[in-house]
């Protein structure tokens, strides 16, 4: 597993009903093993509903994805080990048994889950600058190299200028469609 520097969200599978215990255990392990520079947030996706029982209204939280926890982290051998060996964790979703690294969630998937939870102000970490050279990693322009011309933090989009047929062409992309060279 190569060490990476990119912060991404990963889905971790847990024993059913242990989501909150896994969250608490993992947060303690991050602190005790000094991994706060690699593992940032642990979320149990929930949404709140108002239930009326015996004439009384109360707010109840329902797990959106029972048996799953989201972890925002930089995937390295060490961070993988800390998460994977947390009590109650059965593994990463999208990882196979041959030791390949897990597949992170796409930023639009994370935004969708956060909106379900009522968290609309989710900000993607974005450490690119204007005029920086980048490689396009997804979409019809995958593998093209270009230069960032504009950054829209609100819409989480960038305009990258690529050269096609000898002409500079602006292409609008999502943050997760580019990577540093």
Automatic annotation (TrEMBL):
One Gene Ontology cellular component annotation held by this UniProt entry: cytosol
UniProt keyword Phosphoprotein, yes or no: no
Domain of life: Bacteria
CDD domains for this protein: KOW_NusG, NGN_Bact_1
Domain NusG-like N-terminal: from-to ranges: 6-117
UniProt keyword terms in alphabetical order: Transcription, Transcription antitermination, Transcription regulation, Transcription termination
Ranges where the KOW domain occurs: 127-154
Presence of the UniProt keyword Zinc in the record: no
Gene3D superfamilies: 2.30.30.30, NusG, N-terminal domain
A biological process term (GO) from this entry: DNA-templated transcription termination
Similarity comment: family membership: Belongs to the NusG family.
Function: Participates in transcription elongation, termination and antitermination.
The protein, known as: Transcription termination/antitermination protein NusG
Origin species: Ferroacidibacillus organovorans
């Amino acid at each position: 597993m190569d060490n990476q520097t990119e912060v991404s969200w990963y889905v971790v599978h847990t024993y059913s009903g242990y989501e909150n215990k896994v969250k608490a255990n993992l947060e303690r392990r991050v602190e005790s093993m000094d991994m706060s520079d690699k593992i940032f947030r642990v979320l149990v996706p929930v949404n709140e509903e108002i239930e009326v029982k015996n004439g009384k209204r109360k707010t109840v939280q329902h797990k959106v994805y029972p048996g799953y926890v989201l972890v925002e982290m930089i995937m390295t051998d060490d961070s993988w080990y800390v998460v994977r060996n947390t009590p109650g964790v059965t593994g990463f979703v999208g990882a196979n048994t041959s030791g390949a690294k897990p597949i992170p969630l796409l930023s639009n998937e994370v935004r969708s889950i956060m909106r379900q939870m009522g968290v609309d102000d989710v900000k993607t970490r974005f450490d690119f600058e204007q005029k920086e050279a980048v490689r396009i990693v997804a979409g019809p322009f995958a593998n093209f190299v270009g230069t960032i011309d504009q950054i829209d933090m609100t819409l989480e989009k960038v305009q990258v200028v690529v050269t096609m047929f000898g002409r500079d062409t602006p292409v609008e992309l999502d943050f997760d469609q580019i990577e540093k060279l």
